[in-house]
Amino acid sequence: MAATAGVSPSHRRNSSGLLFALVIIGGGALLVIGWAVSSYNRIVSADQEVRARWAQVENAYQRRADLVPNLVETVKGAANFEQKTFTDVTEARARVGQLSAGELSGALENPETFQRFQQAQQSLGTSLSRLLAVSERYPDLKATANFRELQAQLEGTENRIAVERMRFNESARDFNTLLNRFPTMFIARAFADRFQARPYFEATPDAQKAPAVRF
Questions:
Q1: Rounded to an integer, what distance in angstroms lies between the CA atom of residue 141 and that of residue 77?
Q2: Contact present, 81 and 75 (Cβ < 8 Å)
Q3: What are phi and psi of 77, to 5 degrees?
Q4: HEC letters along the chain
Q5: What are the structural domain ranges in the chain?
Q6: Alpha-carbon distance 156 to 60, whole Å?
Q7: Tens-digit pLDDT profile for residues 15-66
Q8: Contacts of residue 44, Cβ cutoff 8 Å, sequence gap at least 6
Q9: How many CB atoms lie within 10 A of CB 202?
Q10: Architecture of domain 19-190
Q11: What is the DSSP letter of 201?
């Protein structure tokens, strides 16, 4: 009789059971790996969305900073215009420029840098609002075509800043929620050096209020 004839039915059942268990374990492992990969990719996508929104915020703020020199030069041409007013604007813009590109690129991972950026931009926004308020007392300046155009551009830019800040906060909220949601939180913690909670822009009274345009 062949050697295989000596294999007992119980042995064959044990072998089949072991094979079945291995298939179950392997299938479960594949499911876990698939879930981990999917969760990781979701976090990456959310992170990229936050970074894209941050870039738009930076662009909007840079647009405002670019308008300041021409605005200051135009205001300087007005007779007896308060020196301190446009000096404050110039100094506030300088503080914004003190944050290097390297610092800003890491602002999302560094709450202190993010806070410094926000405070510097708020200071500039407040100074610009004060300058435009003072300009109301100078009819000749208000009648200048260049000033009127700059004032309108500044209002549009301030509105764009408000929109981009709101969109950034929304994407940061979605990202932070994903990091803390079960069971995705386990993947986020496993890659904690890469995925960190993102800061938010905080609303402050009148800091980002668009200057009113009055002709």
A1: 8
A2: yes
A3: -75, -10
A4: CCHHHHCCHHHHHHHHHHHHHHHHHHHHHHHHHHHHHHHHHHHHHHHHHHHHHHHHHHHHHHHHHHHHHHHHHHHHCCCCCCHHHHHHHHHHHHHHHCCCHHHHHCCCCCHHHHHHHHHHHHHHHHHHHHHHHHHCCCHHHHCCHHHHHHHHHHHHHHHHHHHHHHHHHHHHHHHHHHHHCCCHHHHHHHCCCCCCCCCCCCCCCCCCCCCCCCC
A5: 19-190
A6: 10
A7: 676 776 777 777 777 787 888 899 999 999 999 999 999 999 999 999 999 9
A8: none
A9: 11
A10: Up-down Bundle (1.20)
A11: P
Dist. CA 144–CA 138, nearest whole Å: 10
Provide the pLDDT confidence category of residue 211 given band limits of 50, 70 and 90. very low
Residue 61's nearest CA partner among 93, 109, 27 is 93
| Residues constituting the chain | 215
Q: Which token pair is 167?
A: 């969109």
Structure tokens at 49: 């969305």
Residue whose pair of structure tokens reads 């075509």 in the numeric block: 145
**Residues near 41 by beta carbon (within 8 Å), at least 6 away in sequence:** none
